Amino acid sequence: MLDMSGQLNQRAAGLAADAKQKISLGRGLVRSDVSAVLFDEPLTVIDPHLKWQLRRKLKQIHRELKLTLIYVTHDQVEALTFAEEVVVMTRGKAVQVGSAEALFERPAHTFVGHFIGSPGMNFLSAHSANGALEVAGTPLVPTRELPPGALKIGIRPPC
Hints:
Layout: H1 17-30, E1 36-40, H2 48-65, E2 68-72, H3 76-82, E3 86-90, E4 93-98, H4 100-105, H5 110-115, E5 122-129, E6 132-135, E7 138-140, E8 149-155
Parallel strand pairs: 1-2
Antiparallel strand pairs: 3-4, 5-6, 5-8, 6-7
């Protein structure tokens, strides 16, 4: 399953970084009392070509064994392509949980809008009152009902 048969006689110290990550995963797979495996920046020190292989292997194991994988990374591309559900955190707090599409299309926090996507969202101050919206002194007609008061409008530049 982990494609390590050829390395069974080697000591872990002599293995490449991707093989060490596979050993870590294997330890979680053989224990019956493990229901989730935590990976903390697992692909940071791995060659880019091997990253894709290991990422594919992790997805396969997740699908086949229905094992929960908690994957910590600062790489938004890695998080968004790998995860079914992403938790975006800033300053030690979870600010939004959702699919990659939801985080990109409907950020619920300015940090998420800045962090997800390249380039990140730009934000403008706005004010809503009596069904009208004013952005930078320009009145606009909103396409949906907005709460009255001060708002922030997120604009994502075209990719």
